[in-house]
Amino acid sequence: MTQAPHPLPDSPATPLETPKWLRELWYFALPSRALKAGAMLAKTMLGEPMLLARDQSGKVFALRDICPHRGIPLSCGRFDGTEVECRYHGWRFDAAGTCTAIPSLVDDQAVDVGRIGVRTYAVAEAQGNIWVYFGDADDTLPEVPSAPGFEAGDQRHVETMVFSGALDHAVVGLMDPAHGPYVHRSWWWRTKASMHAKAKAFAPSPLGFQMVRHTPSSNSLAYKVLGGKPETEITFRLPSIRIESIAAGRHRFVGITAVTPVDDSSCEVNQIMYWTMPWLTWLKPVLRPFIQTFLRQDRDIVAMQQAGLRHDPRLMLIDDADTQAKWYFGLKREFARSRAEKREFINPVKARTLRWRS
Ligand code: FES
Ligand SMILES: [Fe+2]
């Protein structure tokens, strides 16, 4: 007996037909404390080799990590706190990417070394985070993502994990409200039995959307620990930044989840946390394994998903549980279009209430 094949899902155009990575936006590079004065490090972001360095005065700069002479990564060389010296032939470059010396030249060889340069990237440092801008030198830089209410304070903790999956799948996985009871099934967070219907109000917000301020569901044990009646607000903004802000009594907690593509098949997820509760700082060593477990659950599900995605299946996004994912792709498309047409970005998200069980 043969079984009738399942009909093809009635799905919109494959969501991944949007541009892979958006440019003209800030991407999280690393926490400030990972880069000491006089140090440099190499990192791949959006498929581009990047050298990040902090000069002696404390200023961070970013160069394309390829020597214009013969292509060796500049990060293989030395950094004296002012200039980077290439390991191969000792050419030197300053923070503006300008060549300052070619040691092999003899006195009468007039080469204008200042006309040789490597590409630089705009860098912003705020609230203990280093962001890199991917765009052109003459762009008007957009606002740097920030943790509301923590304008002067550094972050309390950053957890970094590499996900083996393309950016879109990691982002959609992180904003997906329906995976909680299945992926994060831990006694201290959610159980399948605790699932119930939810209705959350959403509204457009700059470059994204927001789950408007509300009291979180009672099945989140972790929220109860905060004390007072907690109120939470979750914002998503392009390119791939989620900001959860919880106010409980006189205390605040903000978690920024920033996803930065490394290359076509991997991305780095950074969970950056701010809080005002002193007891949470004392508890940090105890809490860290929980944070890691939570993030690993998301990482592992994205890794498992790759086995199926390798066959390029048609995918589905259903209402309302996947509406945020639909918005994400819509936002990406509109952002890319608005840049290509050199016009204002028009947020395609309309305010509405989404309902799902989780
Ligand atoms: S390759 Fe860098 S100086 Fe020659
Ligand atoms: Fe998750």
What proportion of the residues form beta strands (DSSP E)?
25-35%
Tell me the total number of β-strands.
18
CATH topology of the largest domain: Naphthalene 1,2-dioxygenase Alpha Subunit, Chain A, domain 1
Tell me the span between the first and last alpha carbons.
38 Å
Shape: globular
Largest sheet: 8 strands, antiparallel
Instruction: Tell me the count of domains.
Output: 2
Query: What compounds are bound to the protein?
Result: FE2/S2 (inorganic) cluster, fe (ii) ion
Order of helices and strands: EEEEEEEEEEEHHEEHEEEEHHE
CATH class of the largest domain reads: Alpha Beta
Low-confidence segments, given as residue ranges, are 7-16
Number of helices: 5
Supply the helix-strand structural class: alpha+beta
Indicate the percent of residues in helices: 10-25%
Name the CATH architecture of the largest domain: Alpha-Beta Complex
Tell me the strand order in the biggest sheet.
11-17-16-15-14-13-12-18
CATH homologous superfamily title of the largest domain: Naphthalene 1,2-dioxygenase Alpha Subunit, Chain A, domain 1
* Average residue pLDDT: 90
Task: Write structural notes for this entry.
The chain is α+β, with helices and mostly antiparallel strands and 358 residues long. The chain folds into 2 domains: 118 residues, Rieske [2Fe-2S] iron-sulphur domain (Rieske Iron-sulfur Protein, 3-layer Sandwich), CATH 2.102.10.10; 201 residues, Naphthalene 1,2-dioxygenase Alpha Subunit, Chain A, domain 1 (Alpha-Beta Complex), CATH 3.90.380. It is built from 5 helices and 18 strands. The strands form 3 sheets. The chain has an 8-stranded antiparallel β-sheet, covered by helices on one side. A hairpin with a 2-residue loop joins strand 9 and strand 10. It is globular. It starts with 24 loop residues before the first strand and ends with a strand. The site of fe (ii) ion has 5 residues, from loops.
